[in-house]
Design brief:
Bound molecules: calcium ion
CATH class of the largest domain: Mainly Beta
Number of strands: 33
Shape: elongated
CATH superfamily of the largest domain: Tricorn protease N-terminal domain
Distance between the termini: 29 Å
Number of helices: 5
Structural class: mainly beta
CATH architecture of the largest domain: 6 Propeller
């Protein structure tokens, strides 16, 4: 039990700068010199030095930012953003700064690559058919469709700077089932190219499985992914028009991107980022270190060890109510399910601010009524103690003793409160065996509310009186 509590406390103090290497990094891209990597993590784009691995957040837009591609001249990062629900093309300066949106169509517009003059971005969109490639200037303009045939579903587009060929895939399998391994059949993708200057079409692979995701450096060297070697996605390249396998991974890689200078190929593997160096035939894992900005949260987590100031077991022995730091909790008798009660007062004569602040005043004592469904508790209101009842677990209306009044809002435990609740759960487990017999002797089985206090005297009722029981709780603020 001690170790559990220690672990719970430890969780509360995890520093905001992660020292552990993170997982679930995706869609990486490299700068032209292979020294900078941009990738997606926590729905945002991050930029890191390939050697040091220190990563800083580039975007913090609503929705997922993926498919970062760095322009060959190093000026821009194009990426796919989902700020408005569907995918659109955005650009941000490589050094960070103003983000500009380039496409606005309600269809999905996914960034594929840059043109080699760094003036245009290729993107795939299903705006006019089930998906084909368009080109849009970095300054923004109407996109131009590259493949006119309605049934051409072009994607994974990469331009060869030496020949002008546009490399692509066009199968359903590579478009919609890119992660499905070991497919073999008529819809298997192959590395193909079309040269708009000459009208020439070429097909470079014949493997009945997957050959896809071509990426090309400034010398026209074509790298791609194939599962021909061992059924897993491995890196290959075209050499004199022939395929050559480069890696022998037992787990698949995802879409690789080569730096323009050809020094490195970056890809996702096992939920982390790796580079392959063609010159040395060496694969390295990038040691990414995420650096987050520190936040000052509006809510804080507290250990409640030794700080349960009051408690009561229901007459039917099925539930327990307890107070810690002025907050009220109810759990089943085993302590397996704990709910924090947030009574909100909605009397008409309270100003809106008063209603809001009521939630933060401390609760001091709690008892179950004999119906096993109602809690009687006292709480300060504007600094003065008063008695209240609260239905549990039907949770509809809370009434001040003696006068039926407004509604009650009770929230389930929030994520931030979970460590508190878990700690409370652990405490209750240990204490339950001896708590129960004591409670039987102190239970106030017959408490009930008077019903003759007129509406007008409610304020008077809330003032302190000598008859209010002494409470032992600590204030919540
Ligand atoms: Ca985001
Ligand atoms: Ca769109
Ligand atoms: Ca194939």
């Amino acid at each position: 039990m001690k170790s559990l509590l220690f672990y719970l406390l430890l969780l509360s103090f995890v520093p905001s700068a992660l020292s552990l290497e993170p997982y679930f990094l995706s869609t990486p891209a490299l700068s032209s010199d292979g020294k900078t990597v941009v990738f997606s993590f926590e729905s945002d784009l991050w930029k890191a030095d390939v050697v040091s691995g220190t990563a800083t957040r580039l975007t913090a837009m609503q929705g997922y930012e993926t498919n970062a591609r760095i322009s060959p001249d190093g000026q821009w990062i194009a990426f796919t953003g989902r700020q408005f629900g569907n995918a659109d093309v955005f650009v941000i300066p490589m050094e960070g700064g103003e983000i500009r949106q380039l496409t606005w169509h309600a269809a999905n517009d996914d960034v594929e690559n840059w043109s080699w003059d760094s003036k245009s971005i290729y993107f795939t969109s299903n705006r006019l058919n089930s998906g084909t490639v368009y080109k849009i200037p970095v300054g923004g303009d109407n996109p131009v469709r590259l493949f006119e045939h309605y049934f051409n579903t072009i994607h994974n587009l990469a331009e060869n700077p030496k020949t002008g060929e546009l490399f692509f895939n066009d199968t359903w399998e590579s478009q919609s089932m890119a992660s499905r391994k070991r497919y073999k059949g008529d819809y298997n993708p192959d590395i193909q190219s079309y040269n708009p200057k000459t009208g020439e079409y070429k097909k470079y692979t014949e493997w009945i499985g997957k050959d896809m995701w071509a990426t090309i450096d400034q010398n026209g060297m074509v790298y791609f992914v194939s599962d021909e070697k061992n059924g897993e996605y491995n890196l290959g390249k075209l050499e004199n028009g022939k395929t050559k396998n480069l890696t022998n991974f037992k787990t698949s890689i995802k879409r690789p991107i080569v730096s323009a200078d050809g020094s490195k190929v970056v890809f996702e593997k096992d939920y982390q980022l790796f580079t392959y160096e063609p010159a040395t035939d060496k694969t390295s894992k990038l040691s990414i270190r995420i650096v987050r900005n520190s936040l000052l949260p509006k809510e804080q987590n507290f250990s409640i060890a030794g700080k349960i100031s009051d408690f009561d077991v229901s007459p039917d022995n099925k539930k327990i109510a307890f107070i810690s730091r002025g907050e009220l909790f109810v759990s089943d008798i085993e302590g397996k399910y704990i709910v924090q009660m947030h009574p909100v007062e909605t009397h008409n004569y309270a100003s809106p601010n008063e209603v809001q602040d009521k939630r933060f005043e401390r609760i001091m004592s709690v008892k179950w009524l004999s119906d096993n469904k109602t809690l009687l508790y006292n709480q300060t209101w504007n600094g003065y103690l008063s008695w209240f009842t609260l239905p549990v677990p039907a949770w509809p209306n809370r009434t001040r003793c003696g006068a039926a009044t407004g509604s009650t809002s009770i929230s389930p435990p929030t994520a931030l409160n979970r460590p508190i609740l878990q700690a409370a759960e652990a405490l209750i487990f240990t204490g339950l065996r001896w708590i129960k017999p004591i409670l039987h002797s102190v239970r106030m089985n017959s408490i009930s509310c008077g019903k003759k206090i007129p509406q007008q005297s409610k304020r008077t009722l809330s003032h302190p009186s000598p008859s209010i029981p002494t409470a032992s709780g600590n204030g919540s603020n």
